[in-house]
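Working notes for the structural subgroup meeting. M.R. asked for a predicted model of this chain before we commit to crystallization trials. I am recording the input and output together here so anyone reviewing the notebook later can reproduce the run.

Input as submitted:
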Amino acid sequence: MGNLIDNTIEFVKAKLDGAEAGHDWFHIERVWKLSKKIALDENCNLEVVELSALLHDIADPKFHNGDETIALKVSREFLEDQNVPEDTIDQVLFVIKNISFKNRAEAPKDLPIELKIVQDADRIDAIGAIGVARTFNFGGFKNNLMYHPDIKPNLSMSKEEYKKSNGTTINHFYEKLLLLKDMMNTVKGKKIAEERHEFMLAFLDQFYREWNVD
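Returned structure, recorded in token form:
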């Protein structure tokens, strides 16, 4: 397994060279490490967890005109080239297909533990101090406003509306980030998310105090 994981790391590093900083190798590395940490408390297939974590953003649809098939194709080709068994490939592709926040309404209700672990890790990396940094980085990447007092969060977006949204960065906290704590699947995921959630609330409180100068 070690050799396969090492090969996957090298593959992902090469593929994501020059990627937007919130979705680059370092994001993958954090999700991979968080996944392994959460997996310690769960009865799971660790190889599937690690491969899924490493490949989950190999071709994020946000940077490929919304195409959700590219990541599945790229991952399958790589895993087949590594002679990974078909059953393992299917499990990894299932995680990649169903992990995202925007696809939550379409995902099956009875999720395998491997997906729950990687999903928690990915969502944890979207909150807390790292989450704040990634959110503002991506907002800047899209040239979105940081905040506008007259533009309110849209809490009822469809999947397509969410994919095309160019709302303010602060609104993204209410449209996604502050919702993630209550979406955690695992005990350890919930514990880590709780602390990071509190940090975001404190950040928003400070942000508004600084914005609304008397």
